Amino acid sequence: MMKKFILALISMSLLFASGCAHIEEYDTEETADTEETTEVQTVTVDNPEYYTRFKNDGISINVYNWGEYIPDGSEEGVLNLNAEFTKLTGITVNYSTYATNEELYAKLKGGGSTYDIIIPSDYMISRMIKENMLEPLDKSNIPNFANIMDKFKSSEYDPGSKYSVPYTWGTVGIIYDTTVVDEEDIGWDILWDEDYSGRILMFDNPRDAFAIAENMLGYSLNTENSEELEKAAEKLKEQKKVVQAYVMDEIFDKMGAGEAIIAPYYAGDAVTLMDEYEDLGFVIPDSGTNLFIDAVCIPKGCRNKEAAEMYINFLNEPDVAYAIADFIGYSTPNQKAYEMLDDEVKNDGISYLDDDYIEEKTTVFCNLSDEANQKMQTLWTDMKSSEEQTPNKVIVPAFMSVCVIASLIILIRRYIKKKKDMF
């Protein structure tokens, strides 16, 4: 009896040991698989020593950027560049976003918030320079400025890049649903087409919206002529009856969900949308368009200028500039990053247009005079607040008026009849 008990005990021990070995082996394999799928990505920089200057100083910088305009680690395999910068330098990045240049401008003018880095567009940079809102850059703290393509190192809005370093560039075109809209029919006028009424989106900022109307009317995209601005506003007012909504980043949800089928927007965002939704296409009208440049600046009143310049230098590391272009889909002005791109991207006809089209058909926004800016803003506000007299908006009030008059007539007749009955 004792022998049977001992044998049973030995058998159970062997089975338990075997099971533990199996579990240990499985756990090891599972860990290996996990490690393989969550491999940590890193950024390679040309001069690591440069980034150690503030390593133990407890410094932070406030960065104010467009929405969805830098890799943030929100997707698998995508770097969080702000976290990488902190890891490299010890500098904490406080990050917030805005939707339009005008929102950025109003925030800075209103005070109450301090930023070390902002990324406005060309014409807004010019305006901020004029109004003494930007710090001149110390290029000795930004050695990677050498990576910027020669054609972007100086511009009309900031000659010699004294106040800014180009971040991205691109053009404006039309995103459309290929299952509904024929590419051959697409020009700027399709945004006024009543056949697509209620399914058209429009820019919710005056400069881009006016530029489309000005293009259609044959005016300069930088016109300051008061009469031309008024006619462009009238053109936009005519469009209101077919517009579903005035949007900026909301375009991603609306076009992606099929709530709208036509919208003007930036080429880089179009690339992102088309990657996600195969039925969407993008056309840059033959009549011409705006070529924009967004650039990194340091606003007046910043707390940590040298740390901000280090951040600008980091953004222009080849690996970092490539990661930005790859993630957001916008064109890079960084030569070394451009050389890392696939030929398919370089030749897609959207991100990198041929030089002839750029030279002949694109216009870079210039800063308008204070008077022209105010005129445009007033016209835009009036246009947005005006009521378009569509059939429903006329018929419904008219019907209500008829009902009220009919009710009054009935009441008067009853009153008269009652008076007669009394006598």
UniProtKB/TrEMBL annotation:
Keyword field contains Disulfide bond: no
Gene3D superfamilies: Periplasmic binding protein-like II
A Pfam family matched in the record: SBP_bac_8
Location within or outside the cell: Periplasm
Keywords: Coiled coil, Membrane, Periplasm, Signal, Transmembrane, Transmembrane helix, Transport
Chief location category: periplasm
TM spans (from-to): 394-412
Coiled-coil blocks: 219-246
Protein name: Spermidine/putrescine ABC transporter substrate-binding protein
Organism in which the protein naturally occurs: Hominilimicola fabiformis
